[in-house]
Amino acid sequence: MNDKTTSRRWGRTLGIAFGVAALAALVWWVYQPRALLVEVAQVSTGRFEQVIEEDGRLRPKSRYVITAPTQAELQRPTLKVGDAVRVGDVVAVLQPVSPQMIDARTRDVLSQRIGTANATRQAASAQAQRLQTALAQADLEAERATKLAQDNFISASARDQAQLAQRAARQALTAGRAELAAADSMLAEARAALTRSEPVPGTRAAGLWSLKSPVDGQVLKLHLDSAAPVNVGQPLLELGDLGALEGVIDVLSGEVASIRPGAAVQLFSGARAAPLPARVDRIEPVAFTKVSALGIEEQRVNVIVSLDDGAATTLGLGDGFRVDARIVTLAQDDALLAPSAALVRDGSGWRVFVIDGGKARARAVTVRDRNADQAWIQDGLKAGETVLLYPGSMVEDGQAVKQRATASGG
After folding, report:
1. Cα-based angle 71, 76, 77 (whole degrees, multiple of 5)
2. Which residue(s) pair with 282 in the sheet?
3. DSSP for residue 121
4. Is the pTM of this model over 0.90?
5. DSSP letters of 147-178?
6. Residue 410 burial (C-beta neighbours within 10 Å; 0-12, 13-18, 19+)
7. CB proximity list for 325: less than 8 A, separation 6 or greater
8. Sign of the dihedral defined by the CA atoms of residues 389, 392, 398, 403, in that order
9. What is the rounded CA–CA span in Å between residue 380 and residue 376?
10. From start to end of 61-178, where are the E strands?
11. Beta bridge partners of residue 267, listed in sequence order
12. Could you give the C-alpha distances from 184 to 61, 108, 118, 175, 189, in angstroms and in order?
C-alpha cells in the first residue's frame, strides 16, 4: 500500500514537472527575439552625381521680329506659321495708307477752298497775260530805241532806259508765271484733299513696300493674319531657325550658386524620348518672382543651356516646347556608393547597419556628399558589403534579420 502510494506521488510530481518545463519552454519560445524581415542593398563603386532637376522651355537662339517701318496698310499675308523662308524672301507687303473719310461739313469747307484756289489761279493767269503784253511792248520800245540811237536821233541814255524797261518787264513776267504755277498747285492740292483715294478696280496699287527675310528659318508667329492698317514699329511676324535651339531653365536663386557655365545638362521632352545632351551656356544675373503650384512666391533665375545644332529637330521639338532639365552640379567617378535610404542620423554624423552573419551591425560612416538616391561614402564601408535599407526604431545593434523575399516578374 505504501509502495503504490509512493509511486502515485512520484508520477504526479513528474507530470507536474514536465508540465512546468513545457510551459517554460513555450514562454521562452514566445518571448525569444525573432529575425526581422528587412530590405537590403549592396555597397558598390560607380559615378556619383549631384543634380538639380527643374523644368524649362526651348526657344530659338536668335529670334527676328519683323516690324512695320512706317504707317501703312498690310496686305493679307501668304505665309503660315511653320513655313520655311530664305534670306531675301518677301515676308510682308505694305501699301500706302488711304486718307481718312471726311464729313459733310469738311467737304463743304474743302469745296469752298477749291473755289478760292480756282479764283486765285484765274487772277494769276490774267496777271501773267498782262505781263506778257507789257513785255511785248517793252520789246518793241527797246528795238525802236536801239535803231534811233544808231541813227543818232535819240541819246544813248534813252536807249539804255528802254533796254532796262525791257529787262524789268521780262523779270515781271517770270514772277507772274511763278505765281500762276503756285496757283495751279494750290488748286490741285484743294482738289486732292476732296478726292477719295480709292484704287480703281483691276489696277495695282502703286508705292508697295516689300519687307524681306533677314535669315534662313521658319515663321514662328504671325501677329496679323489678315489685311489691316499698321503703325510705325508694330510687330508683323517673327522668324527663327528651329535648327538652333537653346533651353531656358528657371532655377531657385538659392541653388544657382552651385551651377557653373559648361556644366553637363540632360533635357527630357517626354517619358519615352531620348535625353538631349546640353551644356550650361550662361546664367542670367537677374532674378524674378514666380508663384509655385502651392501658391508660394519664389525667387528664380534663368539658366540658359545650349543644345547641339539640329539635335532638337530630329525629335520634332520647336519654340516654346516644355522640357525637364537635369543639371549636374557635381560628378565623381569610382566613388563608393551606398543607398541614401540606408543612412541613419547618429548625432552630427551618420551610421548604417551592415548585415553580418544574419545580424544587423551598427557602423559609423563618413559621408562625403549625398543626393536623393545615393550617398558618397568616404570611410566606414567597403564595396560588396550589404547594408540594411529603411532601418526603423526596432532595429538595434546585433538584431537578427532576414532578407525579405522579392517577387520576380514574368
Report:
1. 100
2. 304
3. H
4. no
5. HHHHTTSS-HHHHHHHHHHHHHHHHHHHHHHH
6. exposed
7. 53, 54, 55, 56, 247, 249, 265, 266, 267, 268, 305
8. negative
9. 11
10. 63-67, 72-74, 84-85, 90-95
11. 276, 325
12. 58, 21, 8, 14, 9
What DSSP designation does 269 have?
Answer: S
Reading the block at residue 41, the C-alpha cell is 542593398
Cross-strand partners of 266 = 277, 326
What gap in Å lies between CA 27 and CA 24, rounded to an integer? 5
Per residue in 268-305, pLDDT (tens digit) is 987 777 888 999 999 999 999 999 888 999 999 999 99
In the DSSP assignment, the letter for residue 300 is E
What residue type is assigned to position 185 of the chain?
A: S
CA 305 – CA 55 distance, rounded (Å): 12
Rg, Å, the chain Cα set: 50
Measure the CA–CA gap between 307 and 301, rounded to whole angstroms: 19
Q: Say if CB 196 and CB 99 are below 8 A apart.
A: yes
Enter the C-alpha cell of residue 56. 524649362
* C-alpha cell at position 73: 496698310
% the chain with pLDDT above 90: 43
From residue 368, give the alpha-carbon distance in Å to each of 206, 258, 336, 388, 391: 76, 16, 10, 20, 21
Q: Is 43 helix (H, G, I), strand (E, B) or coil?
A: coil
Grid cell at residue 237: 511676324
pLDDT of residue 408: 37
Cα–Cα distance, 230 to 182 (Å, whole number): 35
Torsion of the alpha carbons at 287, 288, 291 and 296, rounded to the nearest 10: 50
| Angle of helix 156-194 versus helix 104-150 axis, rounded to 10 | 160
Spatial separation of the C-alpha atoms in residues 382 and 336, rounded to whole Å: 8
d(CA 224, CA 230): 10
